[in-house]
Each structure stands twice: as C-alpha cells, then as structure tokens.
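Quick log. Single chain, no ligands specified.
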Amino acid sequence: MVVQEEIEQKSFNIMISTTKLSARTVLRAVKAAFRLYQSKASQGKQSVRTLLRQNRGVSSVEISKTGIHGLERYAKKYGIDYAIRKDTSEVPPRYLVFFKAPDAEAFHSAFKEYSVSLLNKDKRPSVLAKLHELVQAAAELPGKVRHKEQERGL
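-> predicted structure:
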C-alpha cells in the first residue's frame, strides 16, 4: 500500500511540474511575440499617431474625398507610409494625407502617376455610352423577313 501511494505522489508531482513548465513556455512565447510586434515598424496606411511616433518628420497634402481610394492604391505601389485625416472644421470637410518626410519624392511621383491616371480616365470613352449606341443601331437594322410559300410540284 505504501508503494502505491509513493507512485501516485511521484506521478502527481511530475504532472504539476510539466504543467508549470508548459505554462512558462507559453508565457515566454507570448512575450517574445509581443516584443517582435512592438519593434516592427508599421508600413502603409496607419494612424497619424503611429506615423508621428516614428520620429522622421511628417509632411501633408490636401486631397478631395473622391480621390482617396485611388491615391491609396498608388501609395501602396510605391511603399509609402501615410495617414489620412478628415478635417471637419470646414464645410465641406477637407482630407489631409500625412506622409513621412523621407517619402516625399516617392509620394510626389505616386501623386503624379495618380493624377495622370485620372486625366486618362476622363479621356477614355464611356463603355455604357458606346453600348447604348450599338443597341440603338441594332434596333434600327431591319429584321429577317421570312416568306413561307407552299410550292406544289408535279
């Protein structure tokens, strides 16, 4: 009976020590992941606060609301860190795009490419207008006329 109790006590101690070990391991892994997350610099779209925390200087440009999504596409293409802020003190509200000062050249080239794409978009013919023209032209075409006549042959 004494031997059985000793075995139970040892197995219980082993179970507790492995549980403590695995809990410590999980805690260390979570701390390491958190440190890695904190040290990694944000890229792309972010808040103005995180952009200012990077201590590299910030520049800004005003943009209309309609062009925000298109500009975001080009900013991502050029790898620019930026933040968009809505200024509601004026009516209509204006939108400011903040970006890091070292990214100024990249931002200006992205903005230039974006504005060229907007100009080209205006020059392109409307697909819907072309489709309506073709539908009207198809409606004006005379339809096939079939004449059914019975011929009696000998």
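The CA atoms of residues 54 and 130 lie 50 Å apart.
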